[in-house]
Every structure is written in structure tokens, then in C-alpha cells.
């Protein structure tokens, strides 16, 4: 039987992120899991987190919270 048929397409929620770190001894930033940052005592390590809406739903009042480890914690 031919004819029209209605159906509903569900909206999808999805968020992506990419983290980049760079130590004061590094020539370039290291993207998400591709290595570790290097800094001498007194040096610094910076990082950025780019968050993107990869779904089909508009987010309002989106909040990103990054909980940093306690001072002295060794991160691998």
C-alpha cells in the first residue's frame, strides 16, 4: 500500500570536548591523551578545553565545571 506516513524524529543531545595541555618546556600543545606536559619547578602548565554542541538540541544556560585535582597530586 502506497501513501504518506508520519513519524517523529527524536532530538539528540550530544556534547564533545577536546583538551589541550602545554607545559613551559613544551614547544607545542599536546592534544587530549597524546602525551604529558613538561614543566620545571616554578614553570607553568596551561590547558584549554573546547566544548562543542554536537547534537541537535539547543542548550541554554550550559555550564561546564572542571574539578581540578588537589595540590601535589601526580597526574599521569
Mean pLDDT: 82
Low-confidence stretches: none
Radius of gyration: 21 Å
Secondary structural class = mainly beta
What is the 3D form? elongated
> Could you give the order of strands across the largest sheet?
2-1-3
Helix content: under 10%
Helix and strand element order: EEE
Residues in β-strands, percent:
25-35%
Describe the biggest sheet?
3 strands, antiparallel
N-C termini distance: 61 Å
What is the overall number of helices? 0
Number of strands: 3
Oligomeric state of the chains in view: single chain
Describe this structure in words.
By secondary structure, this protein is mostly beta strands. Helices cover 0% and strands 26% of the residues. The chain is built from no helices and three strands. A three-stranded antiparallel beta sheet has the order 2-1-3, with no helix packed on it. The chain is elongated. It starts with 14 loop residues before the first strand and ends in a 23-residue tail after the last strand. The relative contact order is 0.27.
Compact summary:
With 76 residues, the chain is mainly β. The protein has strands spanning 15-23, 30-31, 45-53.
Describe how the helices and strands are arranged.
Layout: E1 15-23, E2 30-31, E3 45-53
Antiparallel strand pairs: 1-2, 1-3
Amino acid at each position: 500500500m502506497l501513501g504518506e506516513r508520519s513519524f517523529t524524529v527524536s532530538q539528540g543531545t550530544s556534547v564533545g570536548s577536546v583538551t589541550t595541555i602545554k607545559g613551559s618546556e613544551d614547544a607545542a600543545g599536546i592534544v587530549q591523551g597524546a602525551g604529558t606536559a613538561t614543566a620545571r619547578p616554578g614553570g607553568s602548565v596551561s590547558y584549554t578545553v573546547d566544548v562543542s554542541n554536537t547534537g541537535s538540541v539547543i542548550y541554554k544556560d550550559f555550564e561546564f565545571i572542571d574539578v581540578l585535582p588537589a595540590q601535589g597530586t601526580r597526574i599521569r
